[in-house]
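In keeping with the milestone schedule agreed at the kick-off meeting, the structural modelling team has produced records for the first pair of proteins. Each record is given below as a sequence line and a C-alpha cell line. The laboratory manager (R.T.) confirmed that both were archived under the project's standard naming scheme.
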Amino acid sequence: MIITVVVLYAAKKTNTVQFQDFDRRIPLKIFPLPLLYVGNHITGLASTKKLSLPMFTVLRKFTILMTMILEVYILRKTFQKRLVYSVVAIVFGAMVAASSDLAFDVEAYTFILLNDAFTAASSVYTKKKLGIDVTYPIYSGLGKYGILFYNALIIVSPTLLASAFTGDLHKAVAFEDWVKATFIICFLMSCFMGFVLMYSIVLCSYYNSALTTTVVGAIKNVAVAYIGIFVGGDYLFSWTNFLGLSICMSGGLVYSYFTFNTKSSGGNTEGAQELKIPITEDSTGKQSAC
C-alpha cells in the first residue's frame, strides 16, 4: 500500500499520470473498495493457510459465479448463454472436486467462500468506479490511478493499526533478516510487483468486464493446481477430486476462448443469444428479479 501511494504520488507530481486531487467526497466516491480490499486479503491469507493449494484453487472458482451474479444486479449486464454455460461448468467442476475433499475443514471453507465474495464484490465495484455513476454523477470519475491511490491511502493507516493490535507488526519489526541487503531488495521488489499486479487488475477491469478479469485471472490456476498436486505435499489424491479439477479448468479455458474469440470477430455477433435477468422495481422502490 505504501509503495502504491509513493509511486503514484511521485508520478502525479511529475505529471506522468493524472488523477483527482483529494477532497471530502473522495471517501464516498471510493467506498466500499478499501473495505473489500482488506477483507479480500485477510480471508485470502487465512484460507491459503488452511487449504491445500489445489483445493484453494478449485474453490476460488466460485468467485466467477458470484461475479456474474453481481454484474447482473449491480452493473445491469447480460451474458451470452455459452458464457453462462462455461461458468456453470467451472462451478460444477469445483463442486465435484470439493465433494471428495479428503481434508474437509469447515473453517477453511468458510474463509475461502468469504474470500470469493470479497473478490467478486471488489471486481464489480472496481468496474463501477471506473465508469460513470448515473445515479450519483458527482461520485464518478476517479479513474484507474485515482482508484489505486486513494484505495491504498485510505486503508493503509487502519491496516497498520490493526496489525499493531494483533501483534503482527511487532513480529515483522523483529524479523531477523532486516539486516540482510538481499532480503530488503527482494522485499521491496515484491512490494513494487504488488503495485504492478494491482494496476494490471484495474487496467484489465477498465478494458474488460469484471467477470472476464476474474476468469482470465483463473487461467494461471491451471498450472498452479496441477503443479500443486506434486509440489507441497498437502494434496490428498482421489480420482473424483482430480476429475472435478479438470472439469473446472476446462470450463475456464472455454470461457476465455469464447470471450476473446467474440472480441476478435468484432464484438457481439448479430443474433447471438443472451441470458437476461430482468430487474423490476415495485412501488416501494425495492428491486426484484423476474
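The second protein of the pair:
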Amino acid sequence: MRIGPAAAANMAACSSVPCSFPTKPDPHRRGRNTLPSSHLPRLPGTQFRRFRSLSAAAAPSASRLRPRASVSASAAPSKDYEFTDGNGEVELRLDIQKLGIESSRDVFVDVNDTSLLIRAKSDGTLRTLMNVQTLFDRIKSSETIWFIDEDQLVVNMKKVEQELKWPDIDESWESLTSGITQLLTGISVHIVGDSTDINEAVAKEIAEGIGYLPVCTSELLESATQKSIDTWVASEGVDTVAEAESVVLESLSSHVRTVVATLGGKQGAASRFDRWQYLHSGFTVWLSVSNASDEAAAREEARKSVSSGSVSYAKADVVVKLGGWDPEYTRAVAQGCLVALKQLTLADKKLAGKKSLYIRLGCRGDWPNIEPPGWDPESDAPPTNI
C-alpha cells in the first residue's frame, strides 16, 4: 500500500484498499456498546420520549460489495529474528549459523528508505532471508551498516523519526496496532462514510486492535429511542436523525480513547456540512467506496474530492478508498486506516495537541483555525486565530 498526504489544505492522507494484507473472517456482529450506562449520551427528553413506546425494528443486513482485487490470506510468518529499537536507530539480528555462510561476500543487503531485502548464498543457491516490503517507518538508507557477529547477521538502520518507537521491523497489523497509540495520544477516532455497516465493522476492528472503546452512534440512538434507525427515518425523516446524532457526538466529544462509528447516508450528521463541530474533536477517517480502476486513479479521485470540498466527508482528516466491500476484508481496511493515520500524525506532529486544545476549549466549531479562549461563536467580531 502506498500512503501519502492528499494535496489539500486540511492535510488529508489517502489510502486505497484492497491490497496484500493478511485477513481474517469478520468477527463482528451487530451488538450493544459496552459504554457504562452513566456514560450514555442524554438525548433531549421532550424530543424523543414519544419514541420509547415503539418496538425497535430489525437492523438491515450488511451489504456485500465484492472487491475488485483479491487480498492475500497468507498467515504472518513466524519470527526468526531479533529486533531492538533505541537511541534513534533500529537493529535486526538474523541467525545464519545453519546456512553455512563462509564470508560476508555471500551476504547481500539491499535497502532503501522504506524497504529491506536480505539474501545470502548458501550451497551455491541464493536464498532470501528477509523481504520487508514496507518498513514500520522511513530510515536513512545511506547510513545503514551490516556485519556478521559470530553466528548472526546484524543490520543497523538509522530512523528518520528518531522519537518514534518501532514495535517491529515491518508495518504489519501487529506493529501498527501497537505503535499507533503513541501518535494518537488518546485522541479518539471517528469513522465516517456512506455505509453504517462498513463504518461499524471497521471501527470495531480498529478499537479491538489498539485497545480503544468501540462506540456506534446507531446503537446509542436506538437504545435511547427504542426504535431502529430505519423506522425512525421512515417516520420522522433524515433531518431529525442527523440532528439527534449531533447530540450524541456532542456528548462523546469529551471522551478519549474511543473509536466512534457514525451513521452513513443522509441520516448521518457527517453528511451535513454544518454538523462537523464535534466530529473535529477526533481524528476523522472517511471510508469511501471507489469505482477507480487502480490505486493511482483512486488517489486522484480522493485528492479531487478533498480539494473541491464537494461533499461534507471531505472535511475528514484522512481518506481511505475501498475497491468494494466484503466483511472478510475488514482487517485490511482497518489496517489501511491505521497506516493513513500514522502518515497524517507524522506529517503534522502538532495535530494531536491541536485536537486536544479544541476539545478543552469546548469544540466551538472554529476548527482548524482555533480562536482564543473566551471567543463567542455567535459574535460578529472579526476572528483572531491562534
